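Re: Re: ligand-bound prediction request (bumping)

Still looking for help on this. To restate: I need the protein modeled with zinc ion bound, output as structure tokens. Inputs repeated here so nobody has to scroll up.
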Amino acid sequence: MNITTVQGIIINEKPYSETSKLLTIITKEYGSISVLAKGAKSIKSKIRTVTTRLTYANFQIKYREGKLSTLICADIINPFNNIKSNLSKISYCSYILELTNQVLKQNYNSKIFDLLVEALLKIEESIDEELITNILELKYLNYLGINPNFDTCSICNNSKVITASVEKGGFVCVSHVRNERILNPKTLKLLRMLYYIDINKITKINISNEIKVEINEFIDEYYSKYTGLYLNTKQFLKKIKQISL
Ligand SMILES: [Zn+2]
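Reply:
Sorry for the wait, this slipped through. Here it is.
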């Protein structure tokens, strides 16, 4: 056991005994860890306000590898107040946190934490949460070991592509298209752009609803075909979208 400071985001909080909380924190240093916050439910506790979900902070902890660590104190980096005051942003961020946790379970890489932070900061800045979510979904494919080919035809490497195919793992050219739906050329351009874009550099993106729908359908199908991930928060998001249509 050693006392150390980790940079992290609380993705889950559960009551633990009468007065304490059990936290799941995604950290830059160790991936996803379980941390006991003793006395955190008590009104007088100094750690009460820093042990809620979506807190981004430097956490001083007694770290035990593979076991339950203990929280000593936390220094908030960003409280994400804008996200927390908007139901749509909260819903997307809940999904992002669950997805990130699943990706980290399959492959621990500190770059995944950096991507998560960059994405949350952009949503906090009020950049379209749906689009930022799509960018993360696309970038995580790398860490899940299932990169799509958004450069050339996935079969023959021809650079003249006509659509994107989940089945074939990316773009396809006119000779290799079979029963695939022909996507809008703007969708193809955007899939590639969102996959490669540096999240930090995004200041504004406007995309029509028609293109957004095509992008989302492609990503959803890709995930269900290749990842085997089934996330409750994603199902919830879909329900919200149906209501708002
Ligand atoms: Zn081809």
